Amino acid sequence: MVVWFKLTIQIIVLIAVLSTNHAQAEIVLDPFIQNGMVVQRGTDWLVTGTATNNESFSLSFADQTVNVKPASTVWSAKFNVPKVFSGPSELVIDKPHRSIKVNVGELWVCSGQSNMAFPLKLTQDSNRIVEQLKGKPISIYQATKTIEKTQPDANRWMPADANGNRDFSAVCLSFGAKLFEKLKAPIGLIDASLGGTWIESWISSTSFSQVPKNLISENRFKQRQTHKAKKINKKPDRRFGTDTPSELFDFMIKPLVSKPIKGVLWYQGEGNRSDADHYGRYLTLLMKDWRKSWGQPALPFVIVQLPKFGQPNARPNGNSQWAGIRDSQRLAVIDSQPAGLVVTLDLGDTDIHPKIKLPFGERAAEVANQLVYENKLLGTAPTVSNVAEDNGILRIDFKNGPQCIEQSTGFAESFLIAATDRKWQRAQAKIVGSSVQVFSEKVKKPYAVRYAWSDNPPIGMISCADKLPITPFRTDSWPLNPGPLHR
Fold first, then answer.
1. How far apart are the C-alpha atoms of 425 and 416, rounded to whole Å?
2. Which residues contact 230 (CB under 8 A, 6 or more apart)?
3. Which of 203-212, 357-366, 430-439 tops mean pLDDT?
């Protein structure tokens, strides 16, 4: 009887131990993988996670099953996401049986500084944006921001028309709503933006090390650190990660680069307005850097050009930081294909943060659709292909732009012309076909032209087809901010 009792106890203990061990065997998915997420179609989706032991299990997705036997606590499974399919699907795990509801569609990252980060709740057209989102399969994901503030909706997938969208990027939401109208496929939007930031913070340290040393001075970042230290006792600066180059890349972008995406919507430049000579190089470097980081050499970028800002200036003078950044953005796009420029010269106002955001996102979606999905970018950013002087007249030829350009209300005040002495004079101009002829009685031997060169210039030329403004441009390559980069 005693022997039988001891044997029974041993069996019960053994069953309990085995049950306990089995209960502890837990399969944990990458936190990014959640119900409602969007998976980029036409890519390889690497599903990753951890497990508490090496017990085998399987995952199924899109008629594919992968058997996994973890060799360590970390495991992965690769699936081919269908290219032609879009819509709801499921990722199924068999131990214990559960499923994650996902949408197969188009996944975009929205990044930049304050005008990209500007939340829906602060816009004047929030009701219009919300109306555009209703009933559409658009999911949003807010990357954790480097701010000392509770972020209840960070790192969580949710429908774009949910209550949590009030703190989400208004431009990004507007972009997604318009893009869905074009594609009729689920849209995923990742907001990885932060106000008050410089482009240097968004570039990886590996790529930033390529910047020539003679262009780098740490003064600007040191000044920010000093300024922050002085504020600590009065009003703490509630953001971090912007004090040295590459910090925001490490904190906000690097965690995303293992997720295949369709493209990037970038809206930044205000913080670098005194660095126009170098901004184009940094923006080109950022696009190259992110393409390498994502392992997508042809990752498309849609760049929002800075809009008008401040009081209207009917007399451009050739010395505008805002215009310098716009031109740097234009040139970076030309040098970094596939990329498209969103011309917004008519959209801003006297505030550095325009409160109307819907047109920005909608115009960006039009560019994205042409660049990425229709493969025929016919936007308002023509490239200057030739500049020729003939008897005191500079003829400017364009390529890769609208077939027809026409005058707008500010045409007569939009052009500046200079000889090699670099003294700018107001100029007359006329459109001849798809070319522009510029001249001035005060400049007998013209060498260079600048168009719409002020913070808030008059709109001088528009596309005949959609009546949108033509990008500001210059034909010279003279320094805009002489001397080394003051940072």
1. 5
2. none
3. 357-366
**Separation between Cα atoms, residue 152 and residue 455, nearest integer Å:** 38
Residues 6+ apart with CB under 8 A from 16: none
Q: Which amino acid belongs to residue 236? A: P
Largest CA distance in the chain: 120
Phi, psi of 430 (to 5 degrees): -150, 150
Say whether 18 sits in a helix, a strand or coil: helix
CA 189/CA 196 separation, integer angstroms: 21
The residue among 201, 462, 459, 473 whose CA lies nearest residue 331 is: 473
E-assigned strands of 343-456?
Answer: 383-390, 393-399, 405-407, 415-418, 425-426, 428-432, 435-439, 448-451
Identify the three-state secondary structure at position 134.
coil
Report the candidate in 251, 254, 248 with the shortest Cα–Cα distance to residue 268: 248
Q: Is there a contact between 69 and 54 (Cβ–Cβ < 8 Å)?
A: yes
Q: Is 109 exposed, middle or buried (0-12, 13-18, 19+ CB in 10 A)?
A: buried
Q: Are 189 and 147 in contact (CB under 8 A)?
A: no
Compute the distance between CA of residue 174 and CA of residue 187 in angstroms, rounded to an integer: 12
Residue 84 has which token pair?
A: 């032609």
CA 27 to chain CA centroid, nearest Å: 34
- Separation between Cα atoms, residue 297 and residue 299, nearest integer Å: 6
pLDDT tens for each residue of 107-155:
999 999 999 999 999 999 999 999 999 999 999 999 998 876 778 888 9
Tell me the pLDDT tens digit for each residue of 349-371.
888 999 999 999 999 999 999 99
Is the pTM higher than 0.85? The answer reads yes
Domains observed in the chain:
2-95 (no CATH), 105-373 (3.40.50.1110), 383-474 (no CATH)
| Cα gap 450→387, rounded to integer Å | 12
Q: How far apart are CA 181 and CA 177, in angstroms?
A: 7
Q: Three-class SS of residue 90?
A: strand
Side by side, the strands of the sheet bearing 393-399 are: 383-390, 393-399, 435-439, 428-432
Task: Tell me whether residue 394 is exposed, middle or buried, using C-beta atoms within 10 angstroms of its C-beta: 0 to 12, 13 to 18, 19 or more.
Answer: buried
**Residue 92 has which token pair?**
């199924």
Under a CB-based contact definition with an 8 Å cutoff, are residues 59 and 92 in contact?
yes
Report the DSSP beta bridge partners of residue 304: 342
Task: Say how far apart CA 365 and CA 136 lie, in whole Å.
Answer: 15
Q: How many CB atoms lie within 10 A of CB 209?
A: 11
Residue 79: its H or E element: strand 74-80
Angle between helices 126-133 and 358-368 (to 10 degrees): 40
Can you read off the two tokens belonging to residue 41?
A: 């179609």
